[in-house]
Amino acid sequence: MTATHFGDGNPATPRFQPIVRRSSPQEQVIAWGLIVFGFLGLVIGLAIMRYGLYREVLICAIASALCFLMGYLTLRPRTVFDRSGIHSRTALRSYDIAWPDSRDDFGIARDARSARRIRSAGPSVHVTVRSSAGTVELGGMTTRAITEARAHYLMEDELDRIWAWAVFWGLVPSGSSPGNRAH
After folding, report:
1. pLDDT > 50? residue 116
2. pTM above 0.85, yes or no
3. Rounded-to-integer distance, Cα 148 and Cα 25, Å
4. CA-CA distance, 151 to 145, in Å (whole number)?
5. Contact by Cβ (8 Å): 31, 70
6. Is the dihedral of CA 69, 75, 81, 84 positive or negative?
7. d(Cα 33, Cα 58) in Å, to the nearest integer?
8. What number of other Cβ atoms are within 10 A of residue 142's Cβ?
9. FRET pair for 117, CA 20 to 30 Å: which of 92, 132, 150, 177?
């Protein structure tokens, strides 16, 4: 459970803190690397512009824009669980969703990108939630493992911990289902 303490000296007094889930640390390092390469491409393009090589400047600008875009799209996905609900940003959209009535409203689906395995990269799964807007994929809520079953198990465990946290803080009814573990 995520809880911190007030500075009143009483360690038994928990303070509410939202849960934030985003891209993995490896993905964040890659994204920031792409952004750095984008800046480097701009600097090189400006240096080349002094020599009047405008076609090369255009190539540098396009490459820089692609690096910036890929870095941004990798850093953008994030989901925040707080008192007002679930706030999720995917690569292209943002969603504000009320807390579901049941843990069973959360689903786990195989990530379509994991079908194209690169070397030893295992399959990944992501979280969806049923809401009034339909079924929504939660940004930043992905897990990769050696097998799909293991990734599914890890994500179920994460969802159970988030649901227990929501019950603890009174965000969802305490009598609601704790999940549907198949493992």
Report:
1. no
2. no
3. 21
4. 5
5. yes
6. negative
7. 21
8. 22
9. 92
Cα dihedral sign, 13-171-149-111:
negative
Structure tokens at 93: 């959209």
| Degrees to nearest 5, angle at CA 48 with 44 and 52 | 160
Instruction: Give the tokens for residue 172.
Output: 């969802």
Count of CB atoms within 10 A of residue 98's CB?
11
What span, in angstroms and rounded, lies between the C-alpha atoms of 19 and 12? 20
Q: At 171, is the pLDDT very low, low, confident or very high (cuts 50, 70, 90)?
A: very high
- Alpha carbons 61 and 106: distance in angstroms, whole number: 42
Compute φ and ψ for 176, nearest 5 degrees: -75, 160
Q: Which DSSP symbol is given to 102?
A: S
The per-residue pLDDT for range 25-47, each reduced to its tens digit, is 888 999 999 999 999 999 999 99
Cβ–Cβ under 8 Å, residues 15 and 3: yes
Is 154 strand, coil or helix? helix
